[in-house]
């Protein structure tokens, strides 16, 4: 799931930064949330995209190898970005409608903090499985 999330956001922002800025960050749903924090900066949007694609590499390798260390390292690296990202967005909502603010806060928290926490904790099960082999 994390690889799919980062690959989708990464490809969109990296290869179509203006589209991501105007319509993103939810694929196939034109929220326009990114554009509510102007100005547009192609360099920063592309950097965000390719950073996500870099994380995709880590998540794909972790999914293939399924070692607790790789899974936890990948999710920990995502936390370094995701926690400050979620905090920033939760503190900068005055430019959005109440409905958009609530939806964005929930979406950012679930996809970039809660989901990685679940994956991080599930890596403990991998550790127990490795010791039984």
Automatic annotation (TrEMBL):
Highest taxon in the source lineage: Bacteria
Which regions span the lipid bilayer?
A: 48-67, 74-93, 105-126
Name assigned to this protein: Uncharacterized protein
In the record, what lineage is assigned to the organism producing the protein?
A: Bacteria, Bacillati, Actinomycetota, Actinomycetes, Streptosporangiales
Arranged from A to Z, the UniProt key words for this protein are:
Membrane, Transmembrane, Transmembrane helix
């Amino acid at each position: 799931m994390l690889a799919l999330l980062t690959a989708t956001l990464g490809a969109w922002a990296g290869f179509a930064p203006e589209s991501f800025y105007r319509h993103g960050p939810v694929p196939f749903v034109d929220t326009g949330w990114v554009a509510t924090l102007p100005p547009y900066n192609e360099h920063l949007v592309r950097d965000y995209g390719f950073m996500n694609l870099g994380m995709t590499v880590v998540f794909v390798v972790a999914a293939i190898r399924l070692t607790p260390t790789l899974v936890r390292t990948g999710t920990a690296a995502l936390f370094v970005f995701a926690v400050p990202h979620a905090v920033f967005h939760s503190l900068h909502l005055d430019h959005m409608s109440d409905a958009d603010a609530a939806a964005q806060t929930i979406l950012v928290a679930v996809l970039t903090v809660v989901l990685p926490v679940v994956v991080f904790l599930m890596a403990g099960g991998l550790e127990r499985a490795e010791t039984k082999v």
